[in-house]
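In practice, a research group might receive sequence data for several interacting partners and want a quick structural hypothesis before committing to experiments. The following worked case mirrors that situation: the sequences arrive first, and a predicted assembly follows.
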Amino acid sequence: MADAFRQKFDPAIWQVVTQISPGSVLSYGQVAALAGFPRHARMVSKAMGRSPEALPWHRVVSANNRLAFDQGSESYIEQASLLKQEGITFKDGRLQVQDQTESDRESLDRMLWGPLKD
DNA sequence: CCCTTGACTATCT
DNA sequence: GAGATAGCCAAGG
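A structural hypothesis for the assembly, expressed as tokens:
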């Protein structure tokens, strides 16, 4: 079937997105990679849309620290609104997030793959 | 099987 | 920084 891929991909994506802590964000590519599917950034959005549970989808943004939607669109406004509620501000369409993304990524690494040895 | 479509990204002008 | 270009890859026509 065509969903052979989804069956593994979707849950993995949801798992990662759910773990993003409030006030921080991850890029589509990072989510895909953390889920174990490098180079599947474009599939992330579709997987989120197929989630049966409500996900903090607004915490997933483009790699350039901008929202993936066109400014002014319904979705853009909604996502921006949700992010602002979490304390994230915007600088001329640019997402102003202090490298909280990094610490977030590290905690995800430990959570999903356990402590790493040096 | 070929072609088009994306809530993508990296790189080069 | 804005465009253009080229990879990327599953899905759907």
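Before designing any experiment, note the following. Residues 2, 5-6, 9, 39-43, 46 of chain A lie near DNA strand C (CB under 10 Å from a C1'). Helices of chain A lie at 4-19, 28-34, 41-49, 74-85, 100-113.
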